[in-house]
Write a structure and sequence with these properties.
single chain; about 120 residues; alpha+beta; 2 domains; two-stranded antiparallel sheet; 4 strands; about 15% strand
Length: about 120
């Protein structure tokens, strides 16, 4: 969420809980740096979109690396408020992440979840 918001606001946030740099790390002679304060996220020199990478390595073996790219600019004269929801419902959209050991297991899990959600929607009517 933090990376997506940084892309949306074109802002790089300070590195949380950073106090002292390890003496063996030489930032002065490399391309890396540690942010001490929020700063504008400059557009890439090549003119492409801003891209962020997020890694999470769980103790139980759940590992993920996600690459996010900023959205394309809106057409000239079009404001974000002018966009309409493409979902035919009045409910908020949510991302649901599913994981399984095999494609077959994932398919069964997704099907079961879809059935559960549809039953709940039918009960709401």
């Amino acid at each position: 969420i933090k990376a997506a918001m940084c892309l949306e606001r074109r802002t790089l946030l300070p590195t949380a809980h950073f106090e002292n740099l390890n003496a063996k790390v030489d930032l002065a002679n490399g391309p890396f740096f540690v942010h001490g304060a929020a700063a504008e996220w400059p557009a890439p020199a090549h003119g492409g979109p801003r891209i962020a990478g997020v890694s999470s390595f769980g103790i139980g073996g759940a590992n993920v690396h996600m690459v996010l790219q900023e959205p394309p600019p809106l057409p000239a004269g079009e404001a974000a408020a002018d966009l309409t929801c493409i979902m035919p419902c009045h409910r908020e959209a949510h991302v649901i992440t599913l994981s399984a050991k095999s494609a077959d297991s994932l398919s069964r899990l997704a099907s079961g979840l879809a059935d559960f959600l549809e039953a709940g929607l039918a009960a709401d009517k």
